[in-house]
Amino acid sequence: MAAAVARLGHKVDIFTTDWRSPTPDGEAARYPYAAGSLRSFRCGFPGYWKPSAALARALLSETRHYDLLHVHSLYLFHDLVAPLAARRANRPYIVRPHGLLDPYIRGRHRLRKALVEFAYQDRVLAQADAIHYTSADERRISEPYAQGAPGIVVPLGVDAPTPVDNVARQPRRLLFLSRLHPKKGLDLLIPAFAAVRQRFADARLVVAGPDDGARPLAVELVARHGLGDCVEFPGMLTGPDKDRAFAEAGLFVLPSYSENFGIAVAEAMAAGLPVVVSDQVNIHDAIADAGAGLVVPCQIDRLAQALSALLADPDRSRQMGSNGVELVRKRYSWPAIGKQLEDVYRQIVDRRRS
Hints:
Layout: H1 2-6, E1 14-17, E2 28-33, E3 36-41, H2 53-62, E4 69-72, H3 78-88, E5 93-96, H4 103-106, H5 110-126, E6 130-133, H6 136-142, E7 151-153, E8 173-177, H7 186-199, E9 204-208, H8 215-224, E10 231-235, H9 239-248, E11 251-254, H10 263-270, E12 275-278, H11 284-290, E13 293-296, H12 300-311, H13 314-331, H14 334-353
Parallel strand pairs: 1-3, 4-5, 5-6, 6-7, 8-9, 8-11, 9-10, 11-12, 12-13
Antiparallel strand pairs: 2-3
């Protein structure tokens, strides 16, 4: 997102903590990148809240040099200090909740979240100049918990896939690529795939992604349904390995119980794959309207029927793949997203200045 806006002539700096990658020296590290700088600040205890005194000092002292803050995620330390810094500097701020206002996700760890909401999160949302949703469906289900703040919808973008040489598409190779998390619907996908195999004995399923709590159950379901020889767990795929996975697959599937956008779905469409998603993937309306895939409820039998229908109709699958490429070009390309963000930023900054 930062690079897409920077390509339009703006300077965009990213402030974050070093939670995933501790800084090697001092309390902050600065890394130049195409759009500006990425500054990583030492993260402290407790880890689940991601507090950082260095981040707070930087925000409180430097926010006046910026026109606007775009605050990502909820319930964390920076969600307290970034809006505070914006108010002190008389600068507008936008909050992107990353799906955390979705009732399905909002209900998890409800007591801990309720305490944070009472302490500051509800106030932060209520005083925001806008809440940034990535789909109309995310906005619809989240607005009851947004404390009345105005909402804007700007989707995420994807890069065009890198062509892969000497790789043939395998029409009956199904690809799931996402975190292996309970919300992703692997408990639906694997039994549904077992039903598909009864009709298409040569079908294969690739379950790619890092384990986030659901891999043990997925492995158990594969064994229970006798699918050990036709289901692969390659782990997290990035770069050329991910490009190759998209190039080899004949169909992409993501039957999530909750998905505020579904970036892997957009990547699959950019690669020319037909997609099968649940009606809880919040870009499902766009997929259905464009004829880029099939949308199903979170039910094993309906998922199995949709997968079988596309495997049985290669011409329809190819047309859906072409429709998906066109949908991504029009709605989910980074140049289009950058322009939308620029327009939103300009409107909010101009409104604050006036």
